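seq as requested:
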Amino acid sequence: MEQSSRAQRKTKRRKTNRILNTAIAVVVLLIIIVGFTIFAGGNDEEPAAPEETKQDQTAAVSDEETGEETADEPTEEPAVTEEPADEEETEEKPADEEVVVSEGTEPNVEQDIVNPNWEGVGTTQSGEHASSFETDSSDWQEKEQALAYATGIPLSDMTVWYISGNGPQGAIGTVSPKSNENEAYRVYIEWVDGEGWKPIKVQKLEENDKGR
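struct tokens:
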């Protein structure tokens, strides 16, 4: 009986050991499977992270480029309508013409001088003009101004040798600078309504010649 009981106990222990061993083996196998699944799954998911990061970086760069392009794009400015300038402002003032100096063609005349830019000296007279040779008249004084203007001799330094008529609206005068009365000029002037006496021609006379 005792031997039979011992045999049964040994048999039970063996069965129990087998069951435990089997259970342990199953547990170990499960652990291995789970571990492998975890590691295998982790390896499969690892490439995804860099790809997502790359996409995020690409999106960020695109946003930056878009922002820069938007910032660099010039903004349209409203068109400015230019109004035409006044005709008086747009017209260019003609350049001064050159003074023409030539050798005299008349006796005792050294040079003929013509300045196309001469203008009338102005006048205080009104109404119909009548040339006057009275030395205290306005017309005479304006004649002297025209002679000084044409020769460049100041009135205060100018000697008037004579002024005579040259047609109904013209006159001829001979003048010298007081500082050098041997230097003489014959000046042709004409009357222009609204502008006064205007020089036409200056003749530089040979020295010591103040004749007509």
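The mean pLDDT is 79.
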